[in-house]
Protein 1
Amino acid sequence: MTEEIIIAGFGGQGVLSMGKILAYSGIMQGQEVSWMPSYGPEMRGGTANVAVILSDDRINSPILHEFDTAIILNQQSMDKFESTVKPGGLLLYDPNGIIHPPTRKDINIAIIEGAKEASEMNNRKVFNMIVMGAYLKLHPIVKMENIHKGLEKSLPSRHHNMIPMNEDAIQVGMNKVKWQLNLN
């Protein structure tokens, strides 16, 4: 099994953190992993993306031009990455700020209202974990116990008290994700 993922949005949305947690979770599961971030000097408010590969086999190159999954969190990322999803792949997006939703008919499309759900939880910091929960519901590529280990590894120890809140947010995402177009 190999899963090639692009996560893209504005800096400050937790894009790189989400990729890092997925990568650490894959390592904890004994998978081969690649984590390749890309962001401009403006970071907060500018665009950021990360390519993550989780595989049972050796990864030949971290550089990708097509993805099994695209997790899209802003319009610029939708414009740039919708076309890079492999036919039959998954595009998961938060509709907040998306003016032109995806139009492809050869991919699976799912929606998670992560910004809305984070607001309802009174904690915008868990937005990325809500989105990750939605993804893991659709593609359970790592076990929840390894997500916990990934959170422990990627969060500084002074923030480990936030792990239960992040796990709650993952559950919210799992419960609230909706299909827009499901080819299966």
Protein 2
Amino acid sequence: MYRIALIAAFLLPLWLFACNPGKVHTPEPPPPALVEAAAAGDVARVDTLLQTTSGVDVRDACAWTPLMKAALNGHVETARRLLAAGAAVEATDKGGYTPLMLAAQRGHTELVDLLLAHGANPNHREETEGITALIAAAREGHTRTVMTLIEAGADPHLQDHHGLDALAWARQQGHTLVVKQLTPGAVTPASPTSASRTGD
């Protein structure tokens, strides 16, 4: 348990911020306009830029695409416009994170649904710590997102690079409803009114 707690304390920032420039004092170039608009959820500006920008998968200094930014911030309509324009649902950043993993980490269940409907792989592992979308959601106690991923075929037995699966993380963080969801033989749909310590 102590080992898991240490991992949670020191490695969680790496999960969400996989981009770690080697030269701290090197100024980063400004992000492309489409990335900024997607991050803000500015649908009107996204629509305009999609008509004038050469590619929908332009990237910032961390290799984040507009869809990744929309997924992280829960901008469903923005993500829908980007996907309709051909955004790569399985694009990865420097650490191997996909839009689905970012949405799952934040518990944006509607966005998770949207990305899965467009072919997102629920069992993709990022490279830094080996986590999956399900591990990310379970770690944060997002019960609805956990159930959505399981129903889409997410494998609850996949482990990260430390040998920890989604259930182990849910137990460590005290998310009792997620623990019940992930316990073998006891997976039941999460109630919209249910609440864990940091549930949806």
